[in-house]
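Section 5: illustrative case.
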């Protein structure tokens, strides 16, 4: 059972450790509070998935910058999540829930990890966080982008500080950014693949910029400022359906270049794979209300599994374990109707 450790100092040796070594210094999930010149803290969560080290690497670099100087420009609360999975380079360990699906509002069956994340939120509530940032890698070919769960102006500006590519989503539930949206403007950062120096540098610069913000901008975001997309469906492969990339070995054979389709507006008829079946039951496609919408987005034509309408996918990956543990992809549409129009 995971127990929350909470401290108000940075352990001396911590910044010298790689993500897979943190288990040597931390017994489990740890919330670290550090003072700064502005009192309301930036809350940062890293290693919600143990194989996504970009957040920890960015924090190592950022905190090293301020050691021995005048201190942080704003208080910082750092939550280091699944260090046990990080020790093995895995998203999560067998028997563990996904640490980014068990926050407030989760639809998963109750676990001790749910209660741990509730503790984190309640510890942060009286500190009145200024902003919340959850830092992730992904496994497919995706640009760097930010995700938000509310379309309020401060959320949009916080996302734009990272990238003009912004994704608004309401599913899946139980994610960190959605829990912290009740307390302050919050974002999730997607910083490309593990091991990318650019991803670490981009996240570090962004977090440093957040610490220097005095307030959130209040001027409206216009359609010229942002490429905003709305996640309209999550696509899973049904549990009893086998899948892979080698022809003849699975119920569904995925296109070998499937991750090259991410963040491309694909026309209806685009094939994403092949199947010997004729029923769309092989996919579990849910909209943000949780309704089955497979036939709205997919069709089987002469053994090809094709898109049934123009849509933009994200998070397509060739990592079969990630597809098993999370999903095949998300489907998005451009979302500009609520943005202020500028002539």
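Designed sequence:
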């Amino acid at each position: 059972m995971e127990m929350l450790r909470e401290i108000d100092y940075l352990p001396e040796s911590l910044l010298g450790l790689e993500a897979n070594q943190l288990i040597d210094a931390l017994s489990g999930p740890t919330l670290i509070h550090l003072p700064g010149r502005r009192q309301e803290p930036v809350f940062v969560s890293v290693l919600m998935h143990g194989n996504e080290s970009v957040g920890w690497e960015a924090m190592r670099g950022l905190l090293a910058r301020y050691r021995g100087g005048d201190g942080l420009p704003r208080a910082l609360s750092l939550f280091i999540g699944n260090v046990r999975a990080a020790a093995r380079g895995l998203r999560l360990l067998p028997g563990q829930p996904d640490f980014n699906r068990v926050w407030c509002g989760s639809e998963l069956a109750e676990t001790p990890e749910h209660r741990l994340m509730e503790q984190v939120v309640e510890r942060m509530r009286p500190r009145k966080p200024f902003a919340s940032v959850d830092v992730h890698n992904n496994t497919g070919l995706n640009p760097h982008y930010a995700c938000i769960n509310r379309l309020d102006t401060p959320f949009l500006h916080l996302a734009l500080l990272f990238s003009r590519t912004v994704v608004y989503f309401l599913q899946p539930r139980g994610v960190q950014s959605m829990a912290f949206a009740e307390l302050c403007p919050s974002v999730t950062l997607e910083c490309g693949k593990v091991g990318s120096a650019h991803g670490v540098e981009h996240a570090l610069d962004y977090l440093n910029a957040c610490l220097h913000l005095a307030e959130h901008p209040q001027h409206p975001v216009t359609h010229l400022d942002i490429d905003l997309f709305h996640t309209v469906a999550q696509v899973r492969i049904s549990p009893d359906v086998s899948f892979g990339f080698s022809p003849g070995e699975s119920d569904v054979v995925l296109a070998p270049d499937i991750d090259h389709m991410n963040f491309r507006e694909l026309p209806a008829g685009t094939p994403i794979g092949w199947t010997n079946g004729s029923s769309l039951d092989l996919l579990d496609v849910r909209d943000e209300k949780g309704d089955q919408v497979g036939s709205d987005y997919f069709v089987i034509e002469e053994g090809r599994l094709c898109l049934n309408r123009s849509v933009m996918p994200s998070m397509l990956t060739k990592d079969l374990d990630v597809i098993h543990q999370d999903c095949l992809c998300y489907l998005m549409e451009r979302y500009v109707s609520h943005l202020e129009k500028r002539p």
